[in-house]
Design goal:
mainly alpha; three-stranded antiparallel beta sheet; two-stranded antiparallel ribbon; 17 helices; globular; binds protoporphyrin IX containing FE
Amino acid sequence: MQKTLLLVVSFLALYVVKKYQDWRRAVRSIHDVPGYRHVFGPHSFLLVRRIRYLCTGSFTPWLKKHDDFAQYDSDIISGEITGARTRFPKPLDAYEGINVYGHNIVGTEADEWKRHRKITAPSFSERNNRLVWDETIGIVQELCEDVWGGKDHVVENIVDVTIPLALFVIGAAGFGRQMSWKADLNVSHGHTMPFKDALHVISVELWIKALLPSWFVEWAPIPRIRAFRTAYTELERYMIEMIEERRGSEKKEQRYDLFTSLLDANEEESDGITKLSDSEVMGNIFVFLIAGHETTAHTLAFTFILLALYQDQQEILYQHIKSVVPDGKLPSYEDMGKLTQCYAVILEALRMYPPVCLIPKTTAEDTTLHTCNMAGEPIAIPCPAGTGIGVHIAGLHYNPRYWKDPYAFNPSRFLEDWPRDAFLPFSGGARSCLGRRFSEMEAVAALTYIITRYRVEVKEEPQFAAETFEQRKERLLTCKTAITLYPAKAPLVFKRR
Ligand code: HEM
């Protein structure tokens, strides 16, 4: 017994010494640049939660925003990294879990990524943007008039509205399948689950596939995992049917959803590019869902919360919309360019609450990063090949060097000349977000329609009657993070105007 204990203690001691040596070597390789030190690495699965002195936790960049940079007297390095794709590629092992159904644009690098980007990018066309707009208006109209019956409505948590809203938009303008707020009782022939439910289960439960071993997912007799298994196979079957159906039909009516456009682009002759296989087509269309669903839903959720808190800003927005969209008319795609205040509100919400707070990259070769201290004097940081890097979006968005009064909700800053290099919610450079216009169309259309008809307020609750504005703000804007940043719980009231 004593021998075993001695052995365990010796192993532990050796492990600690080895860790310390590795850590010293890593810190020396970047010339002892001051900053946080992680013992187990910032992306360790076990340490996603903050553990002082061992790990800053994946949530910390959001909590600290620009504070760490101020403390260590350094500016943020972003453009140099996002602008040099080959020097700073993605750490592909961190993206392994995203290659569901097939390889895709998000989880690939180098020539493979170029091939995916070349074939998928044309689907995000102007015609698709128009479709996003029209579908969004239809979906929010059904929500306000049919589901809420044109009356006041209390929402216990705003994401309960924005998550289905964004799902229906991606379902219609992404997959080409219209969905409704009403329960879908029609299970298509040969299926056991409606398309809408399969899409919903997969998009909220993807962690099951990403984090649990596949043998466990295939076997586990746990209802939640069983539902995931069914949804996973069902969605795959729906997608295969959609591919076959679109291939099989004669040149049909023109459709501009991402799925149809992707299949069309893949069929076209293109100089020397290998076509996507069926599994790669499914991998890409699926990754559009994952990349675009929560991000847009949470952006809209934060926007509604901010407007509910800042009634003066909501009034400015309301008056602006009224000046652009005539009374009783539906906002049209052509109005988008004129809805500047609405767009500014969305951008300000994205600046303050970027759904993706940290973008992982790595160094392909030995290199040096260049930045400066807060006084503007240059600092050089050596980075050996294979160094993990995180582009700190929250730090950038709250840097007072670029954003005056960064904690203030001030949409009008986006109506003047604003620092584009210090705004990276959609990343930047060659690997920037492909769905940016998709999500902007959706957010502006939804906001315009709803704000014209409803005033958004914070739900009054007796237990919070005595809270100050700051306390209320903190309560509603407390965030959590899963894959993306989201509001923990924000009860709002939509009052018919
Ligand atoms: C507010 C909404 C959105 C935000 C904040 C956002 C943010 C981002 C970010 C930060 C990246 C870079 C990720 C990385 O490097 O790992 C990205 C990439 C991407 N996004 Fe978005 N996104 C949004 C909406 C969408 C939508 C609606 C779609 C599709 C329908 C979409 C599709 C993509 C794709 C395909 C990429 C990969 C581009 C590439 O690697 O070449 N995104 N997005």
